[in-house]
Amino acid sequence: MAKNEKKASSSKLAHCLVLTYPGQGHINPMLQFSKRLQHKGIKVTFVTTHFFNKSLHRNSSPIPIALEAISDGYDEGGAAQAESIDAYLERFWQIGPQTLTELVEKMNASSVPVDCIVYDSILPWALDVAKKFGLLGATFLTQSCAVYCIYYHANRGFLKLPLTGNEILLPGMPPLEPQDMPSFVYDLGLYPAISDLVLKNQFDNIDKADWVLSNTFYDLEEGVVEWLGRHWSLRTIGPTVPSTYLDKQLEDDKDYGFSMFKQNNESCIKWLNDQAKGSVVYVSFGSMATLKIEEMEELAWGLKASDKYFLWVVRESEQSKLPENFSEETSQKGLVVNWCPQLEVLAHEATGCFLTHCGWNSTLEALSLGVPMVAMPQWTDQSTNSKYIMDVWKMGLKAPADEKGIVRREAIAHCISEILEGERGKEIRRNAGKWRNFAKEAVAKGGSSDKNIDEFVANLVCSKCL
Ligand SMILES: O=c1ccn([C@@H]2O[C@H](COP(=O)(O)OP(=O)(O)O[C@H]3O[C@H](CO)[C@@H](O)[C@H](O)[C@H]3O)[C@@H](O)[C@H]2O)c(=O)[nH]1
């Protein structure tokens, strides 16, 4: 009897499955959003793939969310086991819907049946699964609204590809040049499967989604949020940075919880503790970008030429591209690690600027922690993010590339010096402080993103009562 009573009361909880694509840049924002939902009384089950689930490193604090996995067809090795990214996506598309269906059936036979699936926008088939079961479906955008607005215009044929002319005018956005566009828009034919995914597939059924949730905040992208909001049930819910660094509503929420790579916590923080306030350049290109050997060399010698202290994350798979003797030659000034606790590093008072590839999470983290950026975009959404960092939010400088597309050491050293010591650096630091405050306000109680999450939660709970 006691058992049945428990079953009855728990079945009144609204239950969300949150399904993420297996990548660091996707799992971080969706897990943080899950924590906020759970904090507001929703039961959440966080779902990724079997291989990813097995291979993730758990960071210090335990993750307060139920975890489940589905198959992408590569349970033993994930995307690396596939012969190409195209092959991986094709198989995931075949197997994913079937194994997600099985998971929903399993949950529905439990005491907490599923009410809603929040899915990564690049897994749009999850909405079809949700609708098959009569569930609510919310697509989650892991990149900026500006980038989705560009993709939307390309998708609906309002932006003609290949691009012509030197100025692109889109609603709610500053005038853009071709090189400010996401790589899938200005460099057609590159990675056809991913290009299809971002330009076509993710928009196929977006009009049928009950909500479009975006990891941004209103003040950051006001014009474009307003415009997209006229087309979709768009709700901004970000920045999805752990609560300790922003509003502190969630107790002990210091890190994302999972890492694809083993991180080097102690040595990084110990090293930073020995450096002067605002003196260190933190360098990272996220979880995916791969640099050409020439680019890596220019970056290495650019850091040395800057004559500043630097903490550089070079993933294990990239280490062999470091110039010979570089670590020895720079050991007085630099520390090279495989992976680090990025949030702790950005929050550290020794960190003076962030040389970044401008992945959307890194951008939002720097913004939330008020750290000026040197932008070195590589591909996908990063060039658009770098345009906003430099010209719209004015909280960084984009390091210019030469005619071969390579950022040379002089340009790197110059941008670092401008930010850490130049007049422009002062203005950039003032703006960084301003954006940090706006980011905090958005997620704090009663802020624009907090209110949107409240509304989402209220709708879920209400749908449960009907
Ligand atoms: O040493 C490190 C380096 C990175 N991170 C974290 O890893 C995440 C990296 O995310 P992001 O900055 O978005 O970069 P990518 O991993 O490259 O993310 C991919 O996914 C993002 C969301 O779709 C896109 O914006 C990017 O362009 C795309 O490359 C961030 O949360 C970082 O805090 C660490 O914890 N330690």
From TrEMBL:
Keywords: Glycosyltransferase, Transferase
Superkingdom of origin organism: Eukaryota
UniProt xrefs under Pfam families: UDPGT
Example GO BP: monocarboxylic acid metabolic process
Enzyme Commission number(s): 2.4.1.-
Gene Ontology molecular function, alphabetical: quercetin 3-O-glucosyltransferase activity; quercetin 7-O-glucosyltransferase activity
PANTHER family in alphabetical order: GLUCOSYL/GLUCURONOSYL TRANSFERASES, GLYCOSYLTRANSFERASE
Family per record: Belongs to the UDP-glycosyltransferase family.
Name of this protein: Glycosyltransferase
Annotated source species: Citrus x changshan-huyou
